[in-house]
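Design job #97: recover the sequence.
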């Protein structure tokens, strides 16, 4: 399938948010002041069913999608998400099936996900120190449980396990080197993510961003790094290897070095809206199509049309003018 958007980018990855709910209240993502007790999360009937998600994935694979990632909200908050994993794992053409989680659930869930056919696990962890991590997750969740989840994932064969660390100036900068040392030793890939202005609600300021280049320099000074070739065109992380070793880190410089040119990702929200950019405000309602009885051909035509019209390069534009552009919530369409 040779589907390309207006900038010549193919459709290769689909990120599926399976729920808008999360058990964490990370201050940079779903701050408690906004996502409090009275926050109106999506009612159950509004969520795409597993069958509906499966249908969209089958059609998307026909248009070029090879990689599927389940995210949220927190994907493990969706009941029986492993049943969805097993449905997606059976679709011919889904080469990679990954899940991004905060790693806060009982470890049996790792084994269930592996048995269902999950291929890779990505875990978010912003610090090794309990006080820093708890201040960021805002639900008093301890580091040790997440570390156990990471090890259980590696042991289950869901590697290479990637660990996502969002770096916020003055909040967890001091955790950069301890995190790098720890995961170098453990052999998992730590990825530093520049703090982004996702959500109308996280009070983003450019001053809070620690540029990826600064992070790389800090680590390089302590533990020399060498650049690694991208695995594939459109890889979001700049990769570095510890000199003379196999172990590597990734730097996701979405703010300071936007990578829109290589972006092959579409995002499906929990209620079935298709977004062609993390920062898109306007989605395309696939749920209405599905529930209105559209055939697979109509679904495929719609997807192809949406992708064909895609012209998004939000991060590049925003990089040039970092003021008030419209934003969507990360918890809604997933990271
Ligand atoms: N709940 C899951 C988790 O914690 O990994 C999946 C969803 S979460 C929205 C996906 C990723 O987005 C996480 O690694 C998270 O750290 C990242 N993220 C959330 N808000 C962000 C922000 N403002 N800037 C950069 N990354 C962010």
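Job complete. Output follows.
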């Amino acid at each position: 399938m040779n589907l390309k958007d207006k900038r010549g980018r193919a459709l290769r990855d689909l990120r599926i948010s399976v729920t808008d709910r999360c058990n964490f209240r990370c201050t940079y993502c779903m701050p408690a002041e906004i996502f409090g007790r009275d926050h109106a999360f999506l009612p159950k009937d509004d969520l795409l069913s597993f069958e509906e998600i499966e249908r969209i994935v089958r059609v998307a694979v026909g248009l070029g999608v090879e990689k599927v990632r389940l995210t949220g909200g927190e994907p493990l908050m969706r009941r029986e998400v492993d049943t969805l994993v097993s449905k997606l794992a059976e679709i011919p053409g889904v080469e990679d099936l990954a899940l991004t989680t905060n790693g806060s659930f009982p470890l049996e869930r790792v084994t269930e996900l592996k048995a269902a056919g999950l291929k890779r696990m990505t875990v978010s962890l912003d610090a090794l120190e309990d006080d820093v991590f708890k201040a960021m997750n805002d639900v008093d969740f301890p580091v040790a449980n997440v570390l156990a989840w990471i090890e259980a994932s590696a042991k289950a064969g869901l590697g290479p396990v990637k660990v996502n660390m969002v770096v916020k100036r003055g909040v967890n900068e001091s955790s950069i080197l301890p995190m790098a040392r720890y995961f170098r030793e453990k052999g998992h890939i730590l990825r530093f993510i520049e703090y982004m202005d996702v959500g109308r609600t996280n009070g983003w300021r450019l001053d809070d961003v620690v540029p990826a280049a600064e992070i790389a320099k800090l680590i390089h000074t302590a533990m020399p790094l060498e650049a690694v070739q991208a695995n594939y065109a459109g890889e979001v992380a700049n990769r570095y290897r510890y000199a003379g070793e196999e172990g590597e880190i990734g730097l996701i410089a979405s703010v300071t070095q936007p990578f829109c040119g290589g972006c092959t990702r579409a995002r499906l929200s929990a209620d079935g809206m298709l977004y062609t950019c993390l920062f898109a405000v306007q989605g395309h309602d696939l749920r209405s199509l599905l529930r209105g009885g559209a055939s697979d051909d109509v679904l495929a035509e719609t997807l192809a049309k949406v992708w064909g019209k895609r012209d998004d390069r939000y991060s590049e534009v925003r990089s040039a003018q970092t003021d008030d552009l419209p934003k969507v919530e990360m918890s809604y369409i997933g990271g």
